[in-house]
Design a protein that fits this description.
The protein is of the alpha/beta class. It is built from 12 helices and 12 strands. About 45% of the residues lie in helices and about 15% in strands. The strands form 4 sheets. Strands 5, 6, 7, 10, 11 and 12 form a 6-stranded parallel beta sheet that branches. The chain has a two-stranded antiparallel sheet with strand order 1-2. It has a two-stranded antiparallel ribbon with strand order 3-4. The radius of gyration is 28 Å and the shape is globular.
């Protein structure tokens, strides 16, 4: 014990311990200052989330996640050099308080205007011969779409329906017999939707989340019944009017005039659409937007990168 006492209390040991303590205090103080600096500056880099809401014109608009600085992760990246570097900030998404599912049943005509995406809604009740070519072009551009399938068509064309889902494209409900949904009674509305859900699930093994009423015809009861059956009602922002067989240039210009963040483009498997699709996708991509399916367009996840956020 006497030897241990002198080892611990001699002047050399005391001086060594003093130096270590001084250095530790310096490092701790330096790190704390950096942590506080990140904490202080974080709000200037953050983006508030956007709640879902009902627009007077566009009806249901989905929410959009915000961004906040992950202070601890940012600190861990910066502490080696011990200085603040905005390029090393780590972000995390923050959820809005009001979600699309919180809104009363309402049709969706477009996505959130801050999300740089465009969705293709492709209604299918005929046009089998154009579908393989359209799938090839979508694959070429690494693009996704939602094919709204008529139930009767799925039953009669199971192989083509399976071709669509095999290509990793989303499928939706386009009624069973393509009626004017606004004129149907309550039971008939429900039957049209449920029967189509069942046949799509049986043939493609895909559970449907979205309903597109034929010709865009609906009344409030149609939207409410679809909602009770677990489906959101989808309309469109831009219409190709491809069933009128317009020239390729007319179709492309018609769409591009209305392309904005959140635009939903309505189309069908037709010759003009199949011929226009490659150039249309190229032009939309050149506008800084990506073509996705309805589910991706309407979810709250951010699409921009941290680098793009920092440039704002």
């Amino acid at each position: 014990m006497i030897i241990a006492f002198f080892v611990v209390n001699n002047q050399y040991t005391n001086r060594y311990v003093s130096v270590l303590t001084k250095n530790s205090s310096y490092v701790a103080g330096h790190s704390d200052a950096l942590y506080e600096e990140i904490k202080t500056k974080a709000p200037t880099y953050e983006i508030a989330p956007k709640d879902a809401y009902i627009d007077r014109v566009w009806k249901a608009i989905p929410g959009y996640n915000g961004l906040s600085v992950d202070i601890e992760s940012s600190y861990q990246k910066m502490k080696k050099k011990g200085e603040f570097n905005e390029k090393q900030l780590v972000f995390k998404e923050t959820s809005p308080k009001v979600h699309l599912r919180d809104l009363p049943p309402s049709p969706v005509y477009r996505g959130n205007p801050e999300k740089p995406l465009v969705a293709f809604a492709i209604n299918v009740a005929w046009g089998n011969e154009y579908i393989p070519r359209m799938l090839e072009v979508l694959k070429k551009h690494n693009a996704e779409a939602t094919f709204f399938l008529e139930g009767r068509w799925v039953k009669e064309n199971p192989t083509v329906a399976q071709l669509i889902t095999a290509a990793k494209q989303e499928v939706g409900n386009h009624s069973y017999t393509h009626p004017d949904m606004a004129r149907l009674g309550t039971n008939a509305i429900s039957n049209e939707i449920q029967k189509t859900n069942s046949v799509i699930l049986a043939i493609t093994d895909q559970k449907v989340e979205w309903f597109a009423p034929p010709s865009g015809s609906f009344r409030d009861e149609v939207v409410n019944i679809a909602s009770k059956l677990g489906l959101g009602t989808i309309m469109w922002t831009a219409d190709t009017i491809d069933w009128q067989k317009p020239p390729k240039e007319v179709l492309i210009n018609r769409v591009m005039k209305k392309v904005e963040n959140g635009t939903i483009v309505l189309m069908h498997p037709t010759a003009p659409t199949a011929e226009s699709l490659d150039e249309l996708l190229t032009k939309i991509e050149a506008s800084g937007r990506k073509v996705v399916n309805i589910s991706t367009l309407l979810d709250e996840k951010r699409y921009d990168t941290i680098k793009n956020v920092e440039k704002k």
